[in-house]
Every structure is written in structure tokens, then in C-alpha cells.
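Figure 6 in text form: structure in, sequence out.
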């Protein structure tokens, strides 16, 4: 009997999810077919209280340097505050590297995190993933109407202004390797099926101390902040963005047939400097050379 009830519940939930998707399709910023912004390319109409955010340390500094220059290259309009989260021991960022970044972009705000807040979560998280926990700091910044979180290990290949102008309380890309499913759900607002936290557009609804405190009630795991944020958003509605704004290099990038629609190429997993001979790393090294960083 319990199995029958559970099957009925799952069927009702699936139908309800489909209804939510169809009903909410009228308020999308990414076309689910073409994955293009409905805004004029290169023009941003974001609130003045919008910011970027990134977790950074000295180990990832070479990747972020290339990423920053690629963002500025393709998005010359960008002149928003950029929060950089780091900590003394768990994610150290030297003063020298902070100064170098400030010389390149004067809107950086370097924020040292109180590590004590993260001690319990750090004990549940693989050591190399501990810095990723600091993306949770985004949710406590009540002074902004929207924060766009961007991982440090990405390469920007096009205009990303749409991320800053979404009509969504929370938006991110679906996780996993099913590219067809990611594209199918792009643009829809529906009950969360999980997100990849490498790129997040967080609206005012979730930028408050109450949400920040609630996040710490959820356990971490193998993928750190992604585990926590997915547990928090379970049974909540999220907007799914196109995978072109968080393209997993390891799963989807074909250097022989470079997809011109990809805006953000994400080197989650193996990094370019770890495996420079892999074909998927070629475009990153081309940009590094172009920026005079080789």
C-alpha cells in the first residue's frame, strides 16, 4: 500500500512540476531553444546594487587572472563591485595578489572570512573543496539587490550581461552530464532538481541573514557548497540558466568544434596547468598568451 501511495505522490509531483514549467515559461530570460538573452547584447540594465562575487586563494590566482581579463575583454560594460572571499588559513590570498588584482580592476572588495563559522562544515568536506564553502558568504550581503557568483576557474568567451538582469530569485545551471536535459530546462522556473553552484545569480529574496543562518543548518559533503545549497533549495523554485553560461569543460568542450554559444567555460575538475596537453585546455592557454600572462 505504501508503495502505491508513493507512486501516486511521485506522479502528482511530476505533473505539478510540468505545470509549473509551462505556466512560468512566460517569464524567462533565456530562450529554451536558442539559449540567447532577450536583452540587447552588451548592454546591462542591472540595478546599481548588483555585484559579482568569487572565492579565491593563491593557488587559484593564475586561473582567476586569465578569467578576469577574459571577462573584461568580452564585457567592457562591467563596472560593478566584485566581492572576493578569502581566509587566513583555509583559503589564503596574499596582499601582493590582492594588489595586482586591484590594479587591474578597481571595484574589487577583498573580504576575509571568519573561519570559525566554517569549522564544523570543513570537517565534513574534502580538504581540497573547503574553500568552495565560502560561496555561502554571498547570501549574507543584504546591501545588494543581486549577486552573481562566479567560480575562479573559468574562462569567459562572450557577453554575460544576462546573468545580472535575470528576473529570478535564484538561478543556476543544472548539474550533471545530461546536456540535452540542461538545454531543455534552460529558461524555466520550477522546483529545484539540483544546481551547479559554479555560476549563481542570487536575488534579494535570498540575500539576508536568515537565509545565511539557515544554510549552516545543512550538512556539507563531497561537493561542499553545492551539497549545502541544494539541500537548502530542495522543494523551492529555481530558474535554470543555459549550460552555455556554465559549460563544464571536461564533459562538454570539444576543441575541434568550438561552440560559439558558450559564454563561460568552466574548468571544474582537472585544471589547465595540471594537464596542459589535453585538447580542452588549448583555448585557455591561447587566452593566457593573448593577455601576456604566459
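Output sequence:
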Amino acid at each position: 500500500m505504501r508503495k502505491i501511495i508513493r507512486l501516486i505522490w511521485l506522479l502528482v509531483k511530476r505533473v505539478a512540476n510540468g505545470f509549473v514549467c509551462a505556466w512560468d515559461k512566460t517569464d524567462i530570460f533565456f530562450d529554451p531553444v536558442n539559449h540567447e538573452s532577450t536583452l540587447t547584447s552588451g548592454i546591462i540594465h542591472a540595478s546599481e546594487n548588483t555585484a559579482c562575487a568569487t572565492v579565491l586563494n593563491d593557488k587559484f590566482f593564475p586561473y582567476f587572472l586569465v578569467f578576469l581579463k577574459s571577462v573584461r575583454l568580452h564585457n567592457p560594460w562591467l563596472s560593478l563591485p566584485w566581492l572576493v572571499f578569502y581566509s587566513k588559513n583555509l583559503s589564503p590570498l596574499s596582499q601582493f595578489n590582492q594588489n595586482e588584482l586591484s590594479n587591474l580592476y578597481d571595484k574589487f572588495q577583498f573580504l576575509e572570512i571568519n573561519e570559525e563559522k566554517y569549522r564544523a562544515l570543513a570537517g565534513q568536506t574534502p580538504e581540497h573543496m573547503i574553500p568552495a564553502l565560502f560561496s555561502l558568504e554571498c547570501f549574507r550581503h543584504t546591501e545588494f539587490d543581486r549577486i552573481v557568483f562566479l567560480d575562479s576557474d573559468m574562462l569567459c568567451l562572450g557577453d554575460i550581461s544576462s546573468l545580472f538582469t535575470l528576473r529570478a530569485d535564484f538561478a543556476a545551471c543544472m548539474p550533471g552530464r545530461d546536456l540535452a536535459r540542461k538545454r531543455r530546462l534552460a529558461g524555466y522556473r520550477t522546483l529545484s532538481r539540483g544546481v551547479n553552484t559554479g555560476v549563481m545569480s542570487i536575488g534579494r529574496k535570498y540575500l539576508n541573514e536568515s537565509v545565511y543562518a539557515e544554510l549552516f543548518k545543512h550538512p556539507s559533503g563531497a561537493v561542499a557548497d553545492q551539497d549545502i545549497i541544494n539541500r537548502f533549495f530542495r522543494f523551492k523554485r529555481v530558474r535554470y540558466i543555459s549550460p552555455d553560461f556554465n559549460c563544464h569543460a571536461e564533459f562538454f568542450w570539444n576543441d575541434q568544434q568550438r561552440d560559439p554559444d558558450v559564454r563561460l567555460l568552466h574548468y571544474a575538475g582537472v585544471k589547465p596547468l595540471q594537464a596542459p596537453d589535453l585538447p580542452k585546455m588549448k583555448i585557455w592557454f591561447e587566452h593566457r598568451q593573448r593577455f601576456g600572462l604566459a
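Caption detail: Confidence is low (pLDDT under 50) at residues 15-46.
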